[in-house]
Write a structure and sequence with these properties.
It is built from 11 helices and 19 strands. With 423 residues, the chain is of the alpha/beta class. The protein has 2 domains: 284 residues, Aldolase class I (TIM Barrel, Alpha-Beta Barrel); 99 residues, Nucleotidyltransferase, domain 5 (2-Layer Sandwich), CATH 3.30.420. The strands form 4 sheets. A 9-stranded mixed beta sheet has the order 10-9-8-5-4-3-1-11-12. A 5-stranded mixed beta sheet has the order 16-15-13-17-18, sandwiched between helices. The chain is elongated, with a radius of gyration of 24 Å.
Length: 423
């Protein structure tokens, strides 16, 4: 499919009328970023704020598509599936491409789009076209490296860090190179420019001229949102008159988007009217297996006596292994956990020991082992209570009423296996 055959009137970011009738979703599968902008801080996330670079959860490609299937049943007229971070899609190319592949298989009739800084876009243009990505947004804040050097703190390319003017030169060359390559694939290109008064506000018209000459279709001028703990946190927002005049200048050279909502990386719903159930659904799906579970028939349980989930991971010398059968849940064996004292290696060894397990039922677990186990594809459920209730949650997706809330068990890096943390 090419952009020429794509119904852009169904894309709310590219058609002002579509924002009232068509929903979109951003799948938060790309947490890493390969640049640092002086207006961006991805550490802060409030569910009541709407700005790029924030997300309440990170999903694996498999989790994202399962979430998408559920969301499609809740959102009327969901027409667009996109990836916009919370980092950059092409700082996370494997996750991005796998998500696009799976989503395209599940929803071939949808519109697929990506939003990127463009630094690492070029190597993947052929592949995203193959997966029917028809709309790409590139954030280009400057085409002058002196100006760009004031906006980018650093740029990382192949493990090499560039700063200042050198960083901007690399960014700009990669971004501009990508535009005609995207157009050659029939992909619609939108340019975002973040307006920083006193830095690039007098320069944006030059950006518009250049990107238009390369074939870009539309441009979006976004007033900076000063954010805490950034170099531009004390920068004043552009005035309404500044933005009006600037957009008039840009419109002389390229079509203009004027209805941007500065969407989050996990936004879902109509522009400006996100679906209220998104955060709960994201949290639910972020706790599901990272990968399909056909080859993971078992569940590991931390238990003292084989009836209750009642042990913290740091104190569990063994784990009971259960499986689902036609006659209910069946105990399989008891497996020894790795010895304490080897740091993260202990949890990597445990993940290898449990590579045939889709889930673990545990009373409590520290943040580091939790992350390692989840990244290995194991769904970790923190709970207390009857083992069978937890297993029903794993195998039948039933609510586990005894699941602990995230802050109910405080466990940090000082945990040493004495039921107050993990080592």
């Amino acid at each position: 499919m090419s952009a020429a055959t794509t119904n852009t009137t169904a894309h709310p970011c590219f058609d002002a009328e579509a924002r009232h009738t068509h929903s979109r979703v951003h799948l938060p599968v790309a947490p890493k970023c390969n640049i640092s902008c002086n207006y961006c801080n991805r550490k802060f996330d409030c569910v009541n704020e709407s700005r790029p670079g924030v997300s309440s959860a990170i999903l694996s490609p498999y989790q994202a598509v399962e979430y998408l299937k559920d969301l499609d049943a809740h959102l009327p007229n969901l027409s667009v599936i996109g990836i916009a971070g919370p980092g950059d899609p092409f700082a996370n190319p494997e996750e991005t491409l796998e998500t696009m592949r799976l989503a395209n298989e599940a929803f071939p009739e949808k519109i697929f789009c990506l939003s990127t800084n463009g630094l690492n876009l070029k190597p993947y243009i052929d592949k995203i076209a193959e997966y029917n990505v028809t709309h790409v947004t590139i954030t280009i804040n400057a085409i002058d490296s002196e100006i760009g050097g004031q906006i980018y703190a650093w740029v990382r390319d192949n493990k090499v860090i560039y700063r200042g003017k050198a960083a901007a030169e690399l960014m700009i060359s990669r971004q501009l190179e990508a535009i005609p390559l995207l157009k050659a694939k029939g992909i619609t290109v939108k340019i975002n420019s973040v307006i920083v008064p006193g830095v690039n506000d007098k320069h944006v018209e030059e950006v518009a001229k250049k990107v238009a000459s390369l074939g870009a279709d539309v441009m979006n001028c976004i007033p900076i949102l000063p954010t805490k703990d950034t170099a531009f946190e004390d920068t004043e927002k552009p005035t309404a008159s500044m933005m009006t005049n600037l957009r008039k200048e840009v419109k002389e050279h390229i079509s203009l988007m004027t209805h941007c909502s500065r969407c989050r990386a996990d936004a879902a719903g109509l522009l400006g009217h996100d679906f209220e159930g998104t955060n709960d659904m994201l949290r639910e799906y972020s706790m599901r297996p990272l990968k399909p579970t056909e080859d993971r028939p078992y569940t590991a349980v931390a238990t003292l006596e084989g009836a209750l989930v009642n042990m913290h991971l740091g104190e569990a010398e063994t784990l009971y292994i259960f499986k689902q059968t036609q006659n209910g849940f069946q105990y399989v064996e008891e497996r020894v956990t790795p010895e304490p004292g080897c740091g993260d290696e202990r949890w990597k060894l445990l993940a290898e020991t449990l590579k045939d397990c889709r889930a673990m039922l545990i009373e409590g677990v520290g943040s580091k082992p939790l992350k390692i186990l989840q990244n290995s594809g194991i769904r970790v459920i923190q709970m207390t209570g009857i083992i069978d209730e937890g297993l029903e949650g794993v195998y039948f997706n039933k609510e586990v009423k005894t699941v602990k809330m995230p802050d109910a068990f405080k466990c940090g890096d000082t945990c040493r296996g004495t039921a107050v943390g993990c080592a």
